[in-house]
């Protein structure tokens, strides 16, 4: 501890001496660009390089900003090689920026923040060996990766043929209304079109193989989308699309399918995504579905009743999270696991019926925070549920009523079937 303290003191003294005599390795300086606008830099005397930084005076870059290839400070030249991640944060009136030839790395989120809403053009020095600009849009040098689409561009955008990847967050927050994705594109990255509030039309050509997580998350104006036959991987791509009513999949796709606008895997064993704004208060999950994927029904505000098939084995994380009107539910006998937060935020949920005689694995928040929910289980399993991890927190674990019938459930409960078998005559008697 003493040695560490001494080292810290020595470093502070050395930095003070270096700054006093102008020997500091780095310094913050402010230099005017060609339009006589302030640009702040961190300069590194060892590498003779400079990085554009956010104004320490909380001034916002605005209008047109042209970053020079090199700057002069105290009669020495420094090559501009970097732009800090937050350099253009809160630049509400930034319209155009030019990136010099020496910049080596641009953070994928540099210009996609909510604040750069007026940005319409990103230019790049033609001699930059890492990046280029085409009609104001940022690409890698070979123009195979679309890096950043300026948020302020509006209307329709046709991605140039030859682009193979739409990078993570490339269009995030953009105000465009329509996008056409060519057959050359193979990958749509994570959050690629996140929070594109005005995006109402997306045309994906055959060729795309991967659609990342939140690729179209929060695209409130998007009502329908068609997945081409080439797609082999879809993440949680359509989360919180408030206006989405229909997901179609081309018939020849070998990995995915759709039924009535709902996204499944090809064999319909996984229910992947139930569109956010799909109309109707009730839905009967088809027999054969074994897994309800994470976030599949998340935030659906109209759904009051879901009928689950006997084939169901697993309900994944947040599958029904935020379904505020969902009421009584019945978990089929083959379900062995209910993921964390699976029913979190289901504020109208008052009772859960689990038909499995062995308590399914659940997590702390599988059914939210309410410990007063009525839990109905097979009579012979009441004590098992009361002792089981996760289930033991519930105060009201009871045997399934003798004549219990689940609202909207196509088949009678186990107990009711037994009762009827004993009391009703067989056909022909």
Protein traits:
single chain; 429 residues; mainly beta; Leucine-rich repeat, LRR (right-handed beta-alpha superhelix); 7-stranded mixed beta sheet; 6-stranded mixed beta sheet; elongated; disordered C terminus
Written account of the structure:
The protein has a domain at 22-147: Leucine-rich repeat, LRR (right-handed beta-alpha superhelix) (Alpha-Beta Horseshoe), CATH 3.80.10. The chain is 8% helix and 30% strand. The protein has helices at 2-20, 382-387, 414-423; strands spanning 26-32, 38-44, 49-52, 63-66, 70-73, 76-83, 94-99, 121-124, 131-134, 137-140, 145-148, 154-158, 165-166, 175-181, 187-188, 201-204, 210-211, 224-227, 233-234, 246-249, 256-259, 262-265, 270-273, 282-284, 291-292, 305-307, 314-315, 329-331, 337-338, 351-354, 374-377, 396-399. The strands form 8 sheets. Strands 9-10-11-13-15-17-19 form a 7-stranded mixed sheet, with no helix packed on it. A 6-stranded mixed sheet has the order 21-22-23-25-27-29, with no helix packed on it. Residues 1-24 and 405-429 have low confidence and may be disordered.
